[in-house]
Write a structure and sequence with these properties.
Main location: cytoplasm
GO molecular function: ATP binding; tRNA(Ile)-lysidine synthase activity
Catalytic activity: cytidine(34) in tRNA(Ile2) + L-lysine + ATP = lysidine(34) in tRNA(Ile2) + AMP + diphosphate + H(+)
GO cellular component, one term: cytoplasm
Shape: elongated
Helix content: 40-55%
Number of domains: 2
Family: Belongs to the tRNA(Ile)-lysidine synthase family.
Strand order of the largest sheet: 3-2-1-4-6-5
Largest sheet: 6 strands, mixed
Number of helices: 12
CATH topology of the largest domain: Rossmann fold
């Protein structure tokens, strides 16, 4: 008799990703040693299911499997809990396993600050341990929540495309469960007798994502049917395909608009004006980030205001952007530079 259907589903999802990792690792120039893959694990059902599947599948493949759990220090007893999660991960047979404490700042709100601290810790652990990939337990439900949050914030196509199956430098982060729902991971843990920890923050209405999860999505499902989550996740993939195509177009258009030989990377206004709005604003955003404006602080309103230097030019002065960068138009050219640099 085979494994429980939920257990089979999570193992198959992880197996496919591990084969992709091995394929990438086998490319010319890659090390021939057994690559290390880490599971990021909070102790919740999604990540514990992920860690159990990684431990099971890794034994059949020429790779090593480990895990990392992050202690955000936001709750009483969080350190002891992180150590307990680490012990249970080792009991799966994962090695190495690290429990890392982080300091969560305040910039961007508690959810964003915790996420930034967590990814910084995962990145550092990946580099120090020499891991080729870090698996994350985000599910189709998480993807649907991300799309709803993007819609509520009036975000652009890239934000509405949700989380990518592969992301980060060199494809470091892999999300095997984006096509599986949250209930599958819970059933997999139940079938395997795996104890899980429910983070109280996930039900705290002071957190935006928690309200989406426990209030907004249930209302949508009641009104429109249980297919809402799958539809939102499918919408994310459609948006991602569109965003990828637009980004490629914008990269080529930005290169074409550059003034040959200009040391500041100036862009020709006439060539920018001829571009569709969605492409032109991507070119402007990329130029601003290239000049030193932090991407996380560069919002749509900044890009829209910069776009007016092209579409509504009346001799106005430079546009000040985050990171001390300014966009200035002159002589039919648009230049992005640090505000302290001489024109």
């Amino acid at each position: 008799m085979g494994p429980h259907p939920a257990v089979a589903a999570i193992r198959l999802a992880v197996r496919r990703v591990l084969h992709d990792v091995l394929h990438d690792h086998a490319r010319p120039g890659a090390s021939q040693s057994r690559p290390l893959v880490l599971a990021a694990c909070s102790g919740g059902a999604d990540s514990m299911a992920l860690a159990s599947a990684l431990a099971f599948e890794a034994r059949k493949l020429p790779l090593r499997a480990g895990a990392v759990t992050v202690d955000h220090g936001l709750q009483s007893g969080s350190t002891a809990r992180a150590l307990d999660v680490a012990a249970r991960l080792r009991a799966f047979g994962l090695d190495p396993v690290e429990a890392l404490g982080v300091t969560v700042g305040r910039q961007g709100g508690p959810e964003a600050a915790a996420r930034e601290a967590r990814y910084a810790a995962l990145s550092a652990a990946s580099e120090s341990l020499g891991a080729v990939a870090v698996l994350l337990g985000h599910t189709r439900d998480d993807q649907a929540e991300t799309v709803l949050l993007g819609l509520a914030r009036g975000s652009g196509t890239r934000s509405l495309s949700g989380m990518a199956a592969v992301s980060g430098p060199g494809g470091r982060y892999r999300r095997p469960f984006l096509l599986l729902d949250r209930d599958t991971t819970r059933q997999a843990c139940l079938a395997q007798g795996i104890d899980v920890w429910e983070d109280p923050h996930n039900a705290d209405p002071s957190y935006t994502r928690a309200r989406v999860r426990h209030e907004a999505l249930p209302v949508l499902e009641k009104s429109l049917g249980r297919g809402v989550v799958a539809s939102l996740a499918r919408t994310a993939q459609l948006f991602r395909d569109d965003a990828d195509a637009l980004d490629q177009w914008a990269a080529a258009a930005g290169h074409e608009a550059r003034v040959a030989g200009d040391p500041d990377g100036a862009l020709e206004v006439a060539k920018l004006r001829a571009l569709p709005v969605a492409v032109r604003r991507r070119v402007l955003r990329a130029a601003a980030v290239g000049a030193g404006s932090p991407s996380g602080s560069l919002f749509a309103r900044h890009v829209e205001e910069t776009d007016r230097l092209i579409t509504d030019w009346r001799g106005q002065g430079p546009i000040n952007l985050p990171g001390g960068v300014e966009a200035r138009r002159g002589n039919g050219r648009l230049v992005f530079r640090r505000a302290t640099e001489a024109p």
